[in-house]
Amino acid sequence: MNESAQPTGPATLNPVSEKIHPTLFIALGGTGMKVNIRLRRRILNAIWGGNNQVQQIADFPLVQFVNFDLDSGEVTQDGKSVKTDVLAEQVAFTSEEKIIEPLNLSKYTHSLDELNRHREVAEWFPLTPEKIKALGIDPSKGAGQIRALSRLYFFDKYPVIRDKLRDKVGRLLSNIGAHADKLKKLGLEIDPGKIRVVITGSAAGGTGSGSFLDMGYLAKAILKENNIAGKVDLFFVLPGGFHAYNTERVQANGYAALMELETCMRGNPLVKHWDATDNLFIDSRPYDDVYIIDNSNVAQAKTSDQEDIYEMLSDVLFTDFTSQDFANKKRSIAVNQNQHKIRSYTVRLPQDYGDDTELRFPCSYSSLGQAVLDTQIDARQNVRLNRQVQQMLKAFFGVANATVNGNRPTDKERDEFLKEQLNVTPRTFTELPEFLSRVELTLATGEFTHYQIADDLLQIEGDNSITAQIEQKVETLFERLQNGGADKDQWLTHVREIQQQLDRDTKGSSIDSAERNHEVRIKENRQKRLAELVREDALPEKLFRRLDDDERGGLDYTLALVEMLKDRLENEGSGIIPALEKNAARFKELAEKLESSELSREFERLKETTGKGLLARLSGKEKQAETVLTQVKDTLREGLLFYVRHIAAREAAQLLREVSEWLGRKESVDQNGRAVWNGFVGRLQDGRNAVDRLLRRIDTDISKIDASIKEKHATLIPLKLVQGGEEQPVDGPEVREWAKDAFKDFGGSKVLFGKLQTEEGQEELLGKLRNKAVQQLPPNQIGTDPLLSALAALTPDEQREKFRLLLQRAMPWTPLNLNGGFGISKDRYTCLIGVHDANEFKRTYGAMLGQCLPQGTGMTAGQIQFVESGTQGKLICFTELSGYPLPALTPLPTYLASYRKESATIPLHGHKRISQFVQPIQFTQEQYRQFAEDFKLYMHGVGLGILRRAKDDRYEFVIDQDYFTVGDEFAIRQNGLNLGQRKDIEDQLRKRLDALRSPVQLAALLALFDDYRRSAYKPQKRIDEIGVSSLYQTFPYKIAELLKNEYELRLNRLAPDSAGQLIEQARSLLLQFAEPINGSKADVYNDEVHTEHSEKLALRKEFFTEGWLENLFKPAAAAPVHAPAAPGLAVPPPPGGPGIAPPPPNVPLLSYHLSVSGTNYGPYTVAQLQQYVQTGQITRDSQLWRDGMAAWLSAGQILELAHLFVPSAGGPPAAAGVAPPPAI
């Protein structure tokens, strides 16, 4: 047992630089989901580009995810409770990322007719309706560890899966260009020309185990469809850690999955297409790299908690996006290590089957491990950074802590704001009329508090006012009446007209409601004043200034101030609006009393003094009439002034009510019991809520980091931080100054509140604060890495123990037989140590680390490379074992035992033809001897016609007119023959062999099995990595050669003198005594034979008829024999016209070259020649030559082709001279 094509010396490899590849992660089943959920959590937890954090997976443009599962009831939060996992919602797969749908099994299994309607499924589906019923399968409960159900689910959902993968690949491609700025911000450098697809699943059973091959083929086809230079990798978890499940079932599923994987990785595709209408190219292999993982590793470490494996895998995948140097080194070494994956592991068969008869297993598989020695200082500083950002947010926006009253306004500050901004200035109203003592009043009973805002509404252009206009108008009208020469007895009439005119000027007319009177002007003033107040540069600006006030301001202060303003305005008991409304009623009452009782009394007096009444007769004095007229004027003026004051007070109340409405009103109560406002308060609340959301978001980020700090798993080895990671954030006046400095480019809170309403704006603000917070973090001591400090605090024994645990748990997590001759040498190992200061760490601890390597792994200190990680306080140890064969897996014998047991009760494979899958295990020499004997017996029986190929690809033999099946050729190779079948075939074969007596028969059988060797199992030509080419002679080739040699030995013993001539004759007559076995070209593994191999041949029935074969040979024996060339001279080339070169000497057996007009064509098989004879392209006169003929002959002269020219119905053949198409 050895490794084939080993180079003679160490290979010199040029280093390859590999950047980050945009990656599509496909999670198959529960295992894939759990690994990818953890990966998503790490992406959200990480700090990118120095101070950036991704808030949702959609914001990380380098990745796309697909979650494929049949089990809709799978817990999608990796076992954590949604209530306690702060990242549950963010890491959960979205509906757009999931393909989790029900499977309508009855569509395929209601009856065989139903199944056959779905031809692509019927070709492989192993579950019959009876079997499904017997097994009690319920697809609504998931794949249930039945691999074929998962594959059926893949076929059923194929259009959805295909389109989803196309969409995801398209998004990755678009993200490369569309998010260049975001990638730069995250500190990520990508290779835009490549995409990586990572598929994760379990071999144990169910969704992943049944669909992983189809998913790999499809992913490759999608990349090919888009002309993308990418790679598809599989991370495949073995059944070792699935203790809670049916152990034998998961082991059996694992073995079946490995059989299929091994077959496909040898270049034997499992699928032709999923949909006949597709034009997708199916690659010969489903994966570029396959990483096999289990719950134990090559250093004998083992975990009983499968979650440890998920954590380790997600760590490995995550580091591909983190530290550029470390990740680039991983990728570069992986490319170089591919040299080990193109080799094969060979198993020599017993020498009696040939000195170099062997089986080959591809070394296509790898394993990996990763462990971390972590002080977690980066996480702790991240917590501190986030808390500092919180403090700056609170300080800048004036958000009080829940336990503190905060900065609240006083009543005096409230009243000053009302006075300064709204001119709500109180004063005592004392201008009451003298008649108060003579009338009965209910409201205006004395002095009261009035507000300047009402008087402001009486102001008009300039310094003028409505009250002044009224007084001036009254004076003018009454002066005109007195000086106009009107008779005194007409004064009352004129006064009534003046009253009507003044009423129109003040109150308007019932006829013309649009007239601009004083009442309308007051309303206009109110509307104009409201517009002025709520303009952005007025009241909003003043309130926002309160937000920005360092000493007496802030968000909480301003919200409280607005609420106090509203209360002061609207309070039923003490509010200004109710007071103004009461004042309006007072003024109205005074105006009405003056107009009704007082003015009526004055009119009576005027009537008496200016008319012919008693008073006028008695007085006889004009002076008294003028006095009364003055009193009428004063009363009329006072009534009008009180009326407009009534209107002004009413409109002032309305103005303040509208201002209060603009400030906001409580609309509802939120889920926390807090009032929800509209208006400006709502605007402030939106800002406050946005700030609160940011604060909660930071709290969530802190909780995420705290949770990650507390998480424990086998590959995380904590290292106690000496100091410097637990400092509390700064809190004090300087914090607001930091925030102001961070926000200085934006302006005040007004601009910031606008940014708070958009996600982009929030990210911009947080970015500014984070930058500032990073600047304020206390610097580490120069030259001191917390990792080195923490290690230095340990004793040498404690240091060695940490390194021992680290290296043991970082070893590749696969149980392998490292001493079984599988060629797993130290060169196949990669070991990277990622630290902050690689040179210093290597100088200090490199030797000790090398001494702590686990024994028995084959790795040496020379494989350890120290790489810059860019992260302080942490050591990452990554290992990879590249290129081993599946037989090196130590659990395979256990899996095989479970496989044989379970296969008796349930279909284990994703195909009904299970014999096509190769065994991934290495058997003992005695077992291989038996397999070889059985295969030799099978091949012998096929050649002699004892075993015949049936339509279902299986071979059968007859006993007493009954047919017995032995399986197809793959089954014979994998499992051999059972004892009874072996004996029956041997008996029949012995009878046939006993009848063989003549040299002609032996020569014929020699030619038959020589044709098997050279044609049916025609070997490939392979070139190894050092450029040496050789024929890849496989196991069937060697068995055919063994049979050929046995008959050659018997022939030479029986007829030594004529053996050579008889062999030549037998080769030329082969197709006359043997016939092709239809369909037998499909009996081989594609990776083992040349693409131009032919079908096997079986002896014709007449072969065993006495004398038949001898008669066949006689014409050939009578043919003239060309004299050999003279000694020392080469045999002349066969004639074929001038300039015709002889065909090459290594033409295939019984293949003919054709000469047409001096040009050689071919070679062609006899079957092809027969087609060209039928079409007239070849006639009896056509010149043909094959290996073994001394010269070119016309086709009619070649005896073994005589049957081609038997006359047939139809017209004469076309003229010769047109060459057939080139042979395929």
Distance between the termini: 37 Å
Main beta sheet strand tally, sense and closure: 11 strands, mixed
Count of individual domains: 5
CATH superfamily of the largest domain: Tubulin/FtsZ, GTPase domain
Number of helices: 42
* Radius of gyration, taken over Cα atoms and rounded to an integer in Å: 50 Å
Give the CA-based shape: elongated
Q: If you consult CATH, what is the topology of the largest domain?
A: Rossmann fold
What would you say the CATH architecture of the largest domain is? 3-Layer(aba) Sandwich
Percent strand: 5-15%
The first-level CATH class of the largest domain is given as Alpha Beta
- Mean pLDDT across the residues is 82
> How many β strands by DSSP?
31
Model description:
The protein folds into five domains: 271 residues, Tubulin/FtsZ, GTPase domain (Rossmann fold, 3-Layer(aba) Sandwich); 218 residues, no CATH class; 132 residues; 189 residues, no CATH class; 54 residues, Dna Ligase, domain 1 (2-Layer Sandwich), CATH 3.30.1490. Helix content is 47%, strand content 12%. It is elongated and about 180 Å long. The N terminus and C terminus are likely disordered. With 1224 residues, it is of the alpha/beta class. Strands 2, 5, 6, 7, 8, 9, 12, 17, 18, 19 and 20 form an eleven-stranded mixed β-sheet that branches. A four-stranded antiparallel β-sheet has the order 29-28-30-31. The protein starts with a strand and ends in a 30-residue tail after the last strand. It holds the Pfam family GYF_2. This is GYF domain-containing protein.
